Amino acid sequence: MQPAAPALSLRRYGASPGSHAHAHFQVLVGLEGALDLDVEGRGHRLQAGEGCVIAPGARHDFEARSGSLCLVLDAHSPHWAACSAAGPFAPQLPPAVPALARYLQAALERGQPLAQQFGPALLLEAWQPTPLPTAAFAARARRIDWHALAAWALAQPGAWPDLAALAARVHLSPGQLNARCRAECGQPLMAWLRGQRLAQARALRAQGLAVAEVARRVGYRSPSALTAALRRQHGG
């Protein structure tokens, strides 16, 4: 299973890929160039410092003939509905939003993990016409016991638990847990889990267990798949 894409990203736009829709809110803030957008038949040229909130299910298309760079947030929080109540386009953003977008651009370019962890919530807070309830940020303050989560995942029989099951275990959304893993463990959640599995496999091999038995215990489909994964981990 592939790990979820980061919630917050920098994206360069060019030729139109054709109209499409998402199951989540998509938030854009223009950083460079101009992006021609069509959302459910409404058009707008998104310039640097302007913003757009595309609601779930809204069909949209884009084109940037001379190229465009945007800060993009794929958001599942229902609080974004208030930001799109007057329509998708918000050329007159609160002053804090363009400044925050510039900061997040620089932080993402430098690979600073806290930008991914806290950037989505800060962007929503800056964009909101009214303050968010404290509960909206509670999930980001919740401590994760990574050792206990790894122990639970490694104890599951058969196939590895998926991202949703791991997130449910610690009472977070999949996107929140994946972002926290990147920030606190330095890698996407499924890559972290794969590393835990391989560490367990090496420990079991050191105890003298056969490769086939180790593969069965750690959830690999075959001994050869486990052997290949161990070689890849060590660059060989």
Automatic annotation (TrEMBL):
UniProt KW keywords: DNA-binding, Transcription, Transcription regulation
SMART domains registered for this protein in UniProt: HTH_ARAC (SM00342)
HTH araC/xylS-type domain span: 163-236
PROSITE patterns listed in its UniProt record: HTH_ARAC_FAMILY_2
Domain of life: Bacteria
InterPro entries listed in its UniProt record: AraC_XylS_family_regulators (IPR050204), Cupin_2 (IPR013096), HTH_AraC (IPR018060), RmlC-like_jellyroll (IPR014710), RmlC_Cupin_sf (IPR011051)
Name of protein: AraC family transcriptional regulator
Native source species: Acidovorax lacteus
